[in-house]
Amino acid sequence: MSIHGDFNVHHQLWLLSSFTDQPGEQAYNFSILQDLEQLVQHPTRIPDRLGDTPNILDLFLTTNPSAYSVKLFSPLGSSDHKLISVTCPNAPVPPRDPPKRRCFWHFNSAKWEDLRQYYSDFPWNDYCFHVKDPSLCAERILRS
């Protein structure tokens, strides 16, 4: 499980904030109860006013920390938050099905009269009507 976003919470011990607020305490308790580890280890908010300090406000919480890699990048435009890139290099990539050979029927160029004649002449009684299993009928017809 993973939970991520701009939590905007503060916690002195957990997030190295200068203070702990109630939402920070609640987020911390929730992460402990759910066995979540917080992977963002460096400040994500850049101070934009005198007296502000860098803070970790953007969190990535997960129950599987070894499966993820977190990187921080410079903010875009006028944002005061760094970009966070989370990759999951250990995630299995589902195998693609190999290309399948497909048969295309060209109905417009079919010889319909010949097909009708084939069905009319086929010895159906010899192959089908004394066997109750349709799969056996199909097998017998295909072998003919």
TrEMBL record:
GO BP annotations listed: cell adhesion involved in heart morphogenesis; larval heart development
Source organism superkingdom: Eukaryota
Listed GO MF terms: catalytic activity
One Pfam family it belongs to: Exo_endo_phos_2
Cellular component GO terms held in the UniProt record: extracellular matrix
Gene3D superfamilies, per the entry: Endonuclease/exonuclease/phosphatase
Protein name per the record: Endonuclease/exonuclease/phosphatase domain-containing protein
Endonuclease/exonuclease/phosphatase domain location: 3-84
InterPro entries assigned to the protein according to its UniProt record, in alphabetical order: Endo/exonu/phosph_ase_sf, Endo/exonuclease/phosphatase
Organism this protein belongs to: Chionoecetes opilio
PANTHER family linked to this entry: REVERSE TRANSCRIPTASE DOMAIN-CONTAINING PROTEIN (PTHR33395:SF22), TRANSCRIPTASE, PUTATIVE-RELATED-RELATED (PTHR33395)
